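Milestone 3.1: sequence recovery, worked example.
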């Protein structure tokens, strides 16, 4: 897939003509080792990991019931709607629910922290000298 957009212009490190200054490797490492970044990662993991494990368990339960509990899954609830159909549609509903919950969580708790880290990193003056470059 080709794009008609021109490639980005190289940054001169000043942050004035072509956007913010590009941080150095040392600055990235410093941010990665900071307590604030660690808190951002913990906030993400404390939400994402439990929901991921719960969804995988729910999905595997559905698969196992489909394979080994055919009588139960074939139980008609009303009309031609059986347990398997309801649980299968529940898989889709759960997927959309988790995506919606994550977007709310990210907007409220992750994005502000990430934006603060990013803005501080981009506003730092270039620490390399011309001799280092």
């Amino acid at each position: 897939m080709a794009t008609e957009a021109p490639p980005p212009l190289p940054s001169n490190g000043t942050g004035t003509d072509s956007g913010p200054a590009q941080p150095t490797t040392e600055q990235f490492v410093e941010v990665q080792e900071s307590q604030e970044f660690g808190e951002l990662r913990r906030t993400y993991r404390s939400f994402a990991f439990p929901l991921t494990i719960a969804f995988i368990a729910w999905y595997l339960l559905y698969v196992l019931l489909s394979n080994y509990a055919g009588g139960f899954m074939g139980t008609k609830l009303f009309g031609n709607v059986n347990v398997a159909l309801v649980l299968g549609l529940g898989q889709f509903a759960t997927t959309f629910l988790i995506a919606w919950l994550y977007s709310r969580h990210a907007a409220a708790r992750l994005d502000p922290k990430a934006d603060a880290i990013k803005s501080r990193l981009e506003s730092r003056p270039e620490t390399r000298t011309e001799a280092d470059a």
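The two ends are 34 Å apart (CA to CA). The helical segments are 25-32, 35-68, 70-73, 83-123.
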